[in-house]
Amino acid sequence: PHAREVVGDPGPALDALPVTALDDYRLCPRRFYLAHVEGHPGAGDAMARARRLGRVVHEALARHLPADPGRLARLDPGLPAEALEEAAGLVQRFYEEVVFARFREEAEAWEVRLHLDLEGLRLDGRADLVGPAWVLDLKTDAEVRPEEHRLQLWAYARGLGKAEALLAYLRHGRVVPVALDGLEKEVESVVNGIRSAQFAPTPSRSICVPCPYLPLCEEGRRALED
Q1: Residue 34 burial class via C-beta count within 10 angstroms: exposed 0-12, middle 13-18, buried 19 and up
Q2: CB atoms < 10 A from the CB of 82, how many?
Q3: 16-18 and 121-130: which strand pairing?
Q4: Which of 17, 58, 205, 216 could form a disulfide with 21 if both were Cys (CB 3.0 to 4.6 A apart)?
């Protein structure tokens, strides 16, 4: 199926969104539309598996569960055994690796909810881990792409009053700081685009190749053929 023309056609009123919607819109307004207006989950079993694995890892860490596949199976009984083994390995990396030591030691709260109002648009989020002056977002992604999450991290830092925002890539054993200076103007531009219902696609190879909505986007497929 093809996504219909959406410039100037906002569909349902968008008064509240998850903070992740900011980066979806910045990457491609059509991606935002499909995810947050039409509510499409994205195409492909691999994406669904990755989301489930990520949820298990996040919940295990927030509840301080041991890195045991059998225990983690209780969080998602239908998740395949190999995925549970993988999730247990990622949990263990956070518990043991030196690069994450600061955050283990300074942690004040897990799964902290926040709300941010921007020009009448309510953004809802839940920060993975919060410390005295920082907020940390845990990623189980296969690739390190901090640019895809920087507005989300800005919203966490702003909503919780933290000066430092960081991404922890568990698969790679890396912590990547997000520079917050200047992001407020980007956020304002995104909010204005959402408010004015500008949802035309911005196709490019770098955006379209990993996009879970590519099968629904004729412009994206065309961009990869050129």
Answers
A1: buried
A2: 10
A3: parallel
A4: 17
Residue 80 backbone phi and psi in degrees, to 5: -60, 155
pTM: 0.89
DSSP state letters, 155-223: HHHHHHT-SEEEEEETTTTEEEE---TTHHHHHHHHHHHHHTT-------HHHHTT-TTGGG-HHHHHH
Say if residue 12's pLDDT is above 90.
no
C-alpha angle 213-183-223 in degrees, rounded to nearest 5: 30
Instruction: Average the pLDDT over 43-69 and give the result.
Output: 91
pLDDT per residue as tens digits for the range 111-153:
999 999 998 899 999 999 999 999 999 999 999 999 999 999 9
Q: What is the Cα 69 distance to its own chain's centre?
A: 24
pLDDT in tens, 145-189: 999 999 999 999 999 999 999 999 999 999 999 999 999 999 999
What one-character DSSP code corresponds to residue 218? H
CA–CA separation, 96 vs 55, rounded Å? Answer: 20
φ, ψ of residue 58 to 5 degrees: the values are -60, -45
Instruction: Single out the residue of 48, 55, 47 nearest to residue 87, CA to CA.
Output: 55
Separation between Cα atoms, residue 209 and residue 60, nearest integer Å: 31
SS3 43: coil
Q: Which helix (H) or strand (E) holds 117?
A: strand 109-118
The Cα 185–Cα 146 span in angstroms is 18
Q: How far apart are CA 165 and CA 177, in angstroms?
A: 6
